[in-house]
Design a protein that fits this description.
Elements: E1 9-12, E2 14-17, E3 20-28, H1 44-69, H2 79-88, H3 92-103, H4 108-124, H5 129-132, H6 135-150, E4 164-168, H7 173-177, E5 184-189, H8 197-205, E6 209-211, E7 225-229, E8 234-237, H9 241-261, E9 278-283, H10 289-294, E10 300-304, H11 318-332, E11 337-340, H12 346-349, H13 367-373, H14 375-388, E12 394-398, H15 404-424, E13 433-438, H16 441-445, H17 447-450, E14 456-459, H18 461-469, H19 487-503, E15 506-509, H20 520-526, E16 530-533, H21 538-545, H22 550-560, H23 566-580
Length: 590
């Protein structure tokens, strides 16, 4: 019996890829049903063989997809995602853990499911959202194995033969890569986050997408008309004629604006009163530099080095890190590259350390605290960065600084390494800029003191907001309290920017706020001189930037600082930006 869907049923999820798509549903929700059961001792060897064959079959599937994708120019830069999935198939915790559970007389499906739950729990304890979202890659590999073990055929998203909107419980990066863009107009899923590999691919493919809708697969059926507004995270099931016409106009306006943004690619990022704001890119791996160059980023404002440490039993050595940093500098063509030192807890990704579990890892031994404790590992990374600095314009960034002592300890180690390199006759940049992440309340409170110790600040709003408001945005019960426009956050940003500008050092923001064009006028008014973001956000931010003035931004900030609630602040910003740039900031109707 067909599900009844009321006209104009509005759903709100997470918009991960902008744009508007209008069409009919193709429902892909054939999830494997797992039977967890005990087996007899004499069945163990057969189950081990079945699991091992499933791993080999999954490897063959991924290699085949990789061969297909490698022939598509627009997807080649994302081949590393498939390589990541192939590495997961070799992961000791996944493979050895499952085999151990099978030997304890659990069937293969049940053993694998248990191990996947353990791995998910590890990822859930990671504070950094981007790294936490890597859990979705483990889920994708796990589901592929479960499909093989349960006999559920591989989904054929690449064979959809008509224009439609794909609806699924979840989509793996491999499935997303196989989409036929001429037929898949957009997609929506129950699961997913803003920084998952699937979301990143959707943006790269320019496919409107909304994820995290929780139960949309139970609400739709094939051929149901749907509208996806990936810019605002809105999905409309069974739209009325009036709504259809409205969104058709919005779609046309959006596509016109996107074409217009291409004209801004080579233009400089100056405000109308001739204040230059450097627009840089955040990236995770060397291949992302191409995306940054495509959108005319002025260098790399944040290179997360964590990916060099993932999926391995021992940390990367100095030479491997040096080569990786040099490759990024080579591709950056003389633009600055800001390399952030390791920003995770060692127990999660350096198993040889065998650190004890922490009750509150977000406030435990992580980031610069971990690096200073594990000085041997820290020195390896710093030596690699210093050596690479002779090949290009490097800036070094220390995460999660909470006081002066930490900075001085880091600078002391750098000085020691420089002396060693001098003795060894190894070149490096003696004027390498040193910066710190401002992401703890203590750093904000002593920003004027910290500014005397470094060359630049980089505000990590994602963590700063969580720590300032005592909110875990990954916790569905309190995530609604995570608010970048909270009056306390605005005051924290203003105090930090004032301290940097008074000291004459650089001031950057590299959290999600930087790429949200609705906030551009506010960020300029606060006194930031550099914004670092997802490369795809740069053209829109640049367009806004070239139509506003710093003076107007300062006036808006003064007004916002007099307001008492987040709602008042957000309303004031939205009204201001919609009155200035109505073609960019259309009002969503929910």
């Amino acid at each position: 019996m067909k599900i009844k869907v009321a006209e104009d049923t509005y759903l709100v999820g997470i918009g991960v890829s902008p744009g508007i798509a209008i069409g009919a549903v193709s429902l892909l929700d054939q999830r494997p049903l797992v039977d967890q059961s005990l087996i007899e001792a004499e069945e163990v060897e057969a189950e081990l063989l079945r699991f091992q064959q499933a791993v080999e079959r999954a490897r063959e599937q991924l290699q085949k997809i990789k061969q297909t994708v490698s022939r598509q120019q627009h997807l080649r830069e994302h081949l590393y995602i498939l390589d990541t999935h192939l590495l997961i198939l070799e992961d000791e915790m996944l493979v050895d853990g499952t085999e151990k559970a099978i030997r304890a007389q659990m069937n293969a499906e049940g053993a694998l499911t248990q191990v996947l739950e353990q791995l998910r729990a590890l990822f859930d304890n990671i504070d950094d959202e981007y790294l936490r979202e890597r859990r979705s890659d483990v889920d994708a590999v796990g589901e592929r194995l479960l499909r093989i073990l349960t006999g559920v055929s591989e989904r054929t998203i690449g064979n959809i033969g008509h224009k439609s909107l794909v609806v699924s419980h979840d989509l793996s990066p491999a499935e997303t890569m196989q989409m036929d863009r001429s037929n898949v107009l957009g997609f929506i899923t129950d699961k997913g986050g803003r920084t998952s590999h699937t979301a990143i691919l959707a943006r790269s493919l320019d496919i409107p997408a909304v994820v995290g809708l929780e139960s949309v697969t139970s609400m739709v059926y094939d051929r149901l008309p749907v509208i996806i507004d990936g810019s605002n995270g809105v999905v409309i099931l069974n739209p009325s004629e009036e709504t259809f016409k409205e969104y058709l106009e919005r779609k046309q306006s959006y596509e016109y604006l996107e074409r217009d943004l291409e004209c801004y690619r080579e233009l400089s990022a100056f405000t109308t009163d001739q204040v230059h704001i450097a627009l840089r890119a955040n990236l995770e791996i060397a291949s992302d530099v191409e995306q940054a160059k495509k959108h005319a980023a002025e260098g790399i404002g944040l290179y997360r080095t964590e990916f060099l440490y993932l999926g391995r039993s021992t940390p990367p050595d100095e030479e491997e890190q040096y080569q990786s940093y040099c490759e990024i500098l080579r591709q950056a063509n003389g633009e600055p590259v800001t390399i952030r030192t390791l920003d995770i807890g060692g127990d999660k990704f350096v198993p040889e350390l065998n650190l004890a579990d922490e009750a509150n890892p977000a406030m435990g031994l992580r980031a610069i605290r971990f690096s200073l404790q594990e000085e041997r590992l820290f020195k390896v990374q710093l030596r690699a960065i210093l050596r690479a600095s002779s090949s290009g314009k490097v800036r070094i960034l220390f995460p999660m600084i909470s006081g002066i002592a930490e900075i001085r300890a880091c600078k002391k180690i750098i000085s020691e390494i420089q002396s060693q390199l001098d003795q060894e006759g190894i070149a490096y940049d003696p004027d390498l800029a040193i910066g710190i992440m401002i992401e703890t309340p203590s750093a904000v409170m002593i920003a004027s003191l910290l500014a005397q110790e470094v060359d630049f600040f980089s505000i990590g709003t994602n963590d700063l907001i969580q720590y300032f408001l005592a909110v875990d945005r990954g916790n569905e019960h309190v995530a609604y309290l995570y608010d970048p426009l909270h009056p306390a956050i605005l005051r924290a940003l203003k105090e930090t920017c004032d301290a940097a500008n008074d000291a004459g050092i650089g001031i950057c923001i590299c959290g999600e706020m930087a790429g949200e064009s609705l906030y551009t006028l506010v960020l300029v008014g606060l006194g930031l001189n550099e914004l670092s973001m997802n490369p795809a956000c740069i053209p829109r931010v640049k367009r806004v930037l070239r139509q506003i003035s710093k003076e107007d931004g300062e006036l808006l900030v003064d007004r916002l600082l007099s307001l008492s609630t987040s709602k008042e602040v957000s309303t004031a910003i939205e009204q201001e930006m919609r009155s200035r740039l109505p073609d960019i900031f259309a009002q969503p109707r929910i």
